[in-house]
Amino acid sequence: MLDEASAQLLSALSALIVGGGYKIVEEGELAPRLPLTGEELTRSLALLEEKRLIDVRYAEGGAFCLRLLPAGRSYAERVERERLDAKKRNRESLLYAALGAFLGGALSGAAVLLLSLLV
Question: How far is residue 73's CA from residue 88's CA, in Å, rounded to a whole number?
């Protein structure tokens, strides 16, 4: 399991690197997508390389030549799929809660109406 910063970095790299080849990625390209600074970025890249999710050919002066390994791409896709599933579950929960509230209000309103007609 990756820490939050490394998972975000892997997701950003997955969006930037299309295909299986090496790509030169500059720190400036990652900055809008990530809250990481230089040292944190280097540490996260080292962690991803250690876990064999990316392959770093070189890293110098804020420029990185790297590629996403198949395990890294599948990890990023799984994390994105889990995020979308959680979002869908939240939407469904909201829908069911609203529907339950509406039905409960309608039933209690009907019960009050029925009681007022009987009394």
Answer: 23
